[in-house]
């Protein structure tokens, strides 16, 4: 199972948020330095989020993100504010391995087909942000219906993988709820990366046992609640 350290970027700085709230941001400095630190500790992949994009200004942080992609050379997946075909193509063309499309995929599911046809489905990931069984969009503010039904549609439209985030526990460092992860894994055949609340070795083992393809670690890593070395050891 792949471990993706998160590099969330807001205003040119690497930050971590609690429950996706901008005002909760804690800064950890230069994004490239953070990325390189995780790689030096053994990470072979990165999960990058353009938080300014998620908050509606998608072109901010482009220079920082491109620098990470070029200078690290590791596998990268990127989400945050991709709200058009042009946005998606620009990130794919700059070298990001996979883009994560969430709200825009709900508004225009055919975008997944268009992008998968041109770039290959393996580079197109649909974001499944869920709360209490429902997909949530627009910065987790709007409910769009059953997350399993949306996941099925995203795959039919061309998504080659899914990023599942349990919004209810994201950023709290209080552990996971494995049931929706198991529910999703039992319904789909594409790789699923899991995010939200992963805090302990036991959380990682639980998710590993669902046959998830990977996990995203954010707040727990940055706060020191778990080390990347230990996470990598138990994820194997």
Question: Could you explain how this protein is built, in words?
Answer:
It is a single chain. The protein is α/β, with parallel strands linked by helices and 236 residues long. The protein has one domain (2-235): TIM Barrel (Alpha-Beta Barrel), CATH 3.20.20.70. It has helices at residues 31-40, 51-54, 62-72, 85-93, 103-107, 110-119, 147-157, 178-187, 201-208, 219-222, 228-235; strands spanning 2-10, 13-18, 21-27, 45-50, 75-79, 98-101, 124-131, 134-137, 142-146, 161-166, 192-195, 214-217. An eight-stranded parallel barrel has the order 1-4-5-6-7-10-11-12, surrounded by eight helices. Helix 4 packs parallel to helix 6 (110-119) and helix 9 packs parallel to helix 11 (228-235). The termini are close together. The mean pLDDT is 91.
């Amino acid at each position: 199972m792949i471990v993706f350290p998160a590099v969330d970027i807001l205003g040119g700085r690497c930050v971590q948020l609690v429950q996706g709230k901008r005002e909760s941001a804690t800064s950890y400095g230069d994004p490239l330095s953070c990325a390189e630190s995780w790689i030096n500790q053994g990470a072979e992949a990165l999960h990058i989020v353009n938080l300014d994009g998620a908050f509606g200004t998608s072109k901010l942080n482009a220079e920082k993100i491109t620098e990470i992609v070029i200078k690290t050379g590791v596998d990268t997946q990127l989400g945050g504010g991709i709200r058009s075909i042009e946005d998606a193509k620009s990130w794919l063309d700059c070298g990001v391995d996979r883009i994560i499309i969430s709200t825009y995929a709900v508004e225009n599911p055919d975008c997944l087909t268009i992008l998968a046809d041109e770039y290959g489905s393996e580079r197109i990931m649909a974001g499944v942000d869920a709360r209490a069984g429902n997909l949530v969009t627009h910065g987790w503010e709007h409910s769009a219906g059953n997350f399993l039904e949306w996941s099925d549609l995203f795959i039919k439209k061309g998504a080659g993988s899914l990023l599942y985030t349990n919004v209810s526990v994201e950023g709290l460092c209080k552990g996971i709820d494995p049931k929706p992860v198991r529910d999703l894994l039992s319904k789909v055949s594409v790789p699923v990366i899991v995010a939200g609340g992963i805090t302990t070795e036991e959380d990682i083992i639980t998710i590993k046992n669902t046959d998830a393809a990977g996990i995203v670690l954010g707040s727990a890593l940055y706060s020191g609640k778990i080390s990347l070395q230990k996470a990598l050891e138990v994820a194997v």
